[in-house]
Amino acid sequence: MEFDYHMPMENSATANNATNTSKSVLFYIEDGIATIILNRPERRNALSIAANERLFEIWEQLDADPTIQVAILTSADCGTFSAGMDLHEAAEMKTSTGRDILQLLRDPMYQRMRSVRIPIIAAMTGHFMAGGIVLALNSDLRVGLAGTSGGITETKVGRGSPWAVPMLWMLPQPLLMEMVLTGDLVSVERLHELGFVNYVEATPDEVRARARHLAERIRDNAPMSVRAGKQALNSAMALGSVAGFARAQEIFAPVYASNDAQEGPRAFAEKRKPVWTGK
Fold this sequence. Notes:
alpha/beta, 2-enoyl-CoA Hydratase, Chain A, domain 1, 2 domains, six-stranded mixed beta sheet, globular
């Protein structure tokens, strides 16, 4: 299925094939790969209340649908992957309701995303800041666009960044401290050098192509092994080395006992492609 990322997706004929009715975030499934598209290019793909709600629903759907093996999170092209919270809407909500916008969101820090069972690949076809970098760090792999930048810009608008704590396991502490305190942007090239971004590509289409290639590689592997690998590494980051290793052994026990664990060596010996059942 082909999509036109170079125009607002609500005006694209392919949007009629979307599996959701919300236009702020589009969602497609094809060949075991889900594609999630932030679709507010006129607002630099800022995250509205409706977008937050739709993303939460999508995380739930990714866990509930066993046919989905991997997901790609990208956005309609406008030079920005996501500018973060929709500050215009935040100001309007405060005026009309007297409440901070975070109080109106079911998942204000996008933490549900971190527990999704399958890998998520961020295909960042533009700048990413505030909520945009939240979505990036909560993804499992990241592909960025050359010449763009990312940043934790909350201090510039009087907001906060408690969600940045996991980045202590992804970036050097002095750089992360500088990002949090100054709100300045860091080039995607530097973030790639430091390992936060897996790949940097020259054009938005090449960013998505790289993400698709990674997704296909992941999709074709043993699904139980993939899911356990993600869960084990994330658990270790939370628990530390010793407790994390112990937890990883528990997570992988069903993998070793599965039919797929026998199918892999058997297919290798028979010189054929394995047929995974996820059991």
